Amino acid sequence: MRVTVWNEFRHEKSNPVVSGIYPDGIHGAIATGLTENGLDQITTATLDEPEQGLSAKRLAETDVLVWWGHRHHDEVSDELAAAVAERVNAGMGLVVLHSGHFSKVFKRLMGTPCTLRWRAEGELERLWVVDPAHPVAAGIPPFFELEREEMYGEPFEVPPPDELVFLSWFKGGEAFRSGCGYRRGRGRIFYFRPGHETFPTYHDATIRKVIANAVRWAAPTLIEAEPFQNRRIMPPLEPI
Amino acid sequence: MRVTVWNEFRHEKSNPVVSGIYPDGIHGAIATGLTENGLDQITTATLDEPEQGLSAKRLAETDVLVWWGHRHHDEVSDELAAAVAERVNAGMGLVVLHSGHFSKVFKRLMGTPCTLRWRAEGELERLWVVDPAHPVAAGIPPFFELEREEMYGEPFEVPPPDELVFLSWFKGGEAFRSGCGYRRGRGRIFYFRPGHETFPTYHDATIRKVIANAVRWAAPTLIEAEPFQNRRIMPPLEPI
Amino acid sequence: MRVTVWNEFRHEKSNPVVSGIYPDGIHGAIATGLTENGLDQITTATLDEPEQGLSAKRLAETDVLVWWGHRHHDEVSDELAAAVAERVNAGMGLVVLHSGHFSKVFKRLMGTPCTLRWRAEGELERLWVVDPAHPVAAGIPPFFELEREEMYGEPFEVPPPDELVFLSWFKGGEAFRSGCGYRRGRGRIFYFRPGHETFPTYHDATIRKVIANAVRWAAPTLIEAEPFQNRRIMPPLEPI
Amino acid sequence: MRVTVWNEFRHEKSNPVVSGIYPDGIHGAIATGLTENGLDQITTATLDEPEQGLSAKRLAETDVLVWWGHRHHDEVSDELAAAVAERVNAGMGLVVLHSGHFSKVFKRLMGTPCTLRWRAEGELERLWVVDPAHPVAAGIPPFFELEREEMYGEPFEVPPPDELVFLSWFKGGEAFRSGCGYRRGRGRIFYFRPGHETFPTYHDATIRKVIANAVRWAAPTLIEAEPFQNRRIMPPLEPI
HSE on the CB side for A80, CA within 13 Å? Predict the structure, then answer.
């Protein structure tokens, strides 16, 4: 399984707090976590690379794409967002992290505003497993905690998840659907909430395990080689 | 719409705290709440009445049944539980409240253990609306609070809800799927979490509105007159 | 409830078969069917009208939009498709008919290719009700037939429906998910398969009843006045 | 993965047509099919064996149970049906075949009547894949045919499937949801329609592949060692 971790990679260049936590970039920390969990074909891609990190060839060679973006969603070209969505429908897995909820790619695949309520004060988040037998929860305890995280609150404006795996409890008073699985076309999409850039979330062992689980769950079972199109079927199978 | 509010009605007889809060019984408070919200054919039924309050005739004349039980689930006869489940599949609505999650009726309709984690210390519960356009959330603010409630925690061992309306946040650290809608046979089932007997939950105006909304949402669109059975279809509609 | 029936209205101008069947346009026949079924604020809109029939004002005054399009999906402006999708997420109901499965509006809301297999030879279609208690099936018999229709076959590349109401059987050998309900944002979307322009489908009494049921089911419960946006929540509800 | 194939095994003893087709029993043919598809810990169990083939020990050593029953559902003890359902909720996979739709086990897990319409005349059934990327459809062509099968028609009185994989088209005019996946407790349940005893369905290579896929899909990710129970959680995680 070939995994590409895409990161906006801007906060790390402009904010010393972020670069202090993630000297190799958020993508670097996520990639390390995947490697630690036994995945071995991990590469990274970032917004400021040529073709925004994801050429057609690169995308065609990706089985599961992990996406982290935040402030610069608008800079991702419409063409790239369309190409990623098309590749997901063709069968590529997609794991959308944290502020990626508002990326062009995720919004296009969901068809809804994908908005929510937020507060980035750094408060305790406790994640509860609601479906312990779900592959994304494999090896995860009944709950786990992040000492300081951004809060995301409901209503989260996404379609009803096909599979709900985690709920978050926030110290400041909110609850949230934090792990949401979707089946779209031949592909699978997993949204996982934690990961604000000013906290060391992607160094957390449990978080890394969840992301690795999500990547494995989203692995393609089938990738369509031909573009989707309406197809005329003649003659009929039975006399009409 | 003919609504029957069924209550175990035992705590009120043995625990002065409960009878102090609910001098007319939990069923009485729920019935009053429904009346306040414009429903006008409300009757009540309790465990110690003849036929456990629900004769075949009574059940046949009920469009939506509201169910509150707790300590004495086992005393409800298997025959009654089967009759209620059959009536729900035939089209009657069912609103299951709080500890009713562990009633014979609900477990039979869900097919799962319906267990959860709990703590009855009396802590703040804050309910968040995740689907503001759902009919059960009509007129309900983005969140509302109960100062003192029992905690229910995940995993809640029910089938994935067909429709999820509320999440609860508990002061003590848990989150929970608090408002779950199901479609079963011709009927609709809504599970709504709050309502521990030692707290005045069913006097709360917002709670009353939610229950009335749930009753309206669960109202039958169609009630099957004949028992369900496998039916042989002959001759075929097309030559075989 | 204010209903707007939108139609491409081109086949009727260029193909005498179609204008023979639908002298008042497909939109005219659909509107008549809604009126017959007791809805009374029905207007129509077509592609060649100013602003493609749907000005911002018009859209803001529509509670449920019915959509029929076919050959000229590409002519619908991206801006209009975006505005309709936004309005659906805000709460407007949307009933998408037949070849509207490939409209910009529907594809944008689904996030998937929405492709299928087809054959327009005019063969028997028999629709089976799989959820007889669903409001869209109210008053509809266990099955009903259209003597001559276009065939649509699986896989239909849409997200798993939140609610499945009808299956189609085609004489030529295919089966299809013909009545699919979705909840998106505050709005509801119903896709209903039949309605090829060269057959008199929208004169059929059962079809008309289904469409009227779908319009009623999709009626808004709540319309968001403000655009969706991420909202910062401060201060927290609880001390952090 | 340890698979147990349970069969009523009565038709084979009383009906020479059935024993002619299935000299090793329906369970024998299914077991052979699983072996052909690379599964290697397959055993069988039948109704007339001690403890109806499924002792507590046997059940505890089964990871996925395949179930075929028909005329003698009522002879399966309530205790065994309860034990199987409990084991499924604990994590065991269950693949229910054909007339098993009306078994005590399946009805108990679904909570609905599980009735349908039928006609056992031996007509063409064509199964269509609606979700080609679903693991149960792995390696299965867009459609496949059984020359002679019993017809099952809608409405099939089950809960809305969590995952729908196949639709059937019948020569005689019906359509049916033929491959339905459910998540219940820690377990997964797959219902697969074909398999009337007087036709050689379980000798068909595609059918065998689907059943093997379903067994793999239903394989446990986690089995609960302790019985499900409500659990008191004290002290709270946060001060209340």
Answer: 20
The predicted-structure confidence for D185-220, as pLDDT tens digits, reads as follows 999 999 999 999 999 999 999 999 999 999 999 999
Residue D183 lies in a domain: yes
Cβ-nearest to C130 among D126, D169, D177: D177
All residues of chain C having their beta carbon less than 8 Å from the beta carbon of residue B131 are 183
Range(s) of the domain holding residue C100: 3-116+178-217
pTM: 0.98
What CATH number has the domain bearing residue B191? 3.40.50.880
Asked whether the beta carbons of residue A169 and residue B173 sit closer than 8 angstroms, the reply is yes
User: Looking at the 3D structure of chain C, how many domains does it have?
Assistant: 1
* Residue B1 · residue B215 · CB < 8 Å: yes
pLDDT mean by block of 10 residues, chain B; 240 residues: 98 97 98 98 98 98 98 98 98 98 98 98 98 98 98 98 98 98 98 98 98 98 96 95
Report residue D94's pLDDT band, with 50, 70 and 90 as the boundaries.
Answer: very high
For residue A148, give the 3-state DSSP assignment: strand
Which residues from B are below 8 Å from A177, CB to CB?
Answer: 130, 167
Report how far residue B6's alpha carbon sits from residue B68's, in angstroms, rounded to the nearest whole number. Answer: 6
Q: Are A116 and A153 in contact (CB under 8 A)?
A: yes
Q: What is the DSSP string of A5-36?
A: EEE---HHHH-HHHHHH-TTHHHHHHHHHHHH
Token pair 């369970």: residue: D27
How many B×D Cβ pairs under 8 Å? 127
Please tell me which chains touch A, using 3 or more CB pairs under 8 Å as the contact test.
Answer: B, C, D
Whether C233 has its CB under 8 Å from any CB of chain B: the answer is: no
The amino acid sitting at B36 is E
Residue B96 resides in a domain: yes
- Between B121, B184, B233, which is nearest D240 by CB? B121
- Percent composition of chain B: helix, strand, coil (DSSP 3-state, to 5): 35, 30, 40
| CB contact D119 to C (< 8 Å) | no
> How far is residue D168's CA from residue D151's CA, in Å, rounded to a whole number?
9
Task: Name residues of chain A where pLDDT drops below 50.
Answer: none
Return the exposure string of B1-24: e unless at least 16 CB atoms fall within 10 Å of the residue's CB, then b.
bbbbbbbbbbbbeeeeebeebbee
| Residue D32 lies inside a defined structural domain of this protein | yes
D75 exposed, middle or buried (CB, 10 Å; 0-12, 13-18, 19+)?
Answer: middle
3-state secondary structure C163-199: EEEEEEEECCCCEEEEEEEEEECCEEEEEECCCCCCC
Can you tell me the distance from the alpha carbon of C234 to that of C219, in angstroms, rounded to the nearest whole number? 34
Q: ipTM of this model?
A: 0.97
Query: Rounded to a whole number, what is the distance in Å from the CA of C31 to chain D's nearest CA?
Result: 30
Contact between B217 and B190 under an 8 Å Cβ cutoff? The reply is yes
- C-beta separation of C55 from C80 below 8 A: no
**Closest to B195 measured CA to CA, from B163, B143, B158, B148:** B148
Mapped onto helix, strand or coil, the DSSP state of residue B45 is strand
Position C154 in a domain: no
pLDDT of B12 reads 98
User: Which residue of B91, B134, B238 is in closest CB contact with C133?
Assistant: B91
Q: Which residues contact B226 (CB under 8 A, 6 or more apart)?
A: none
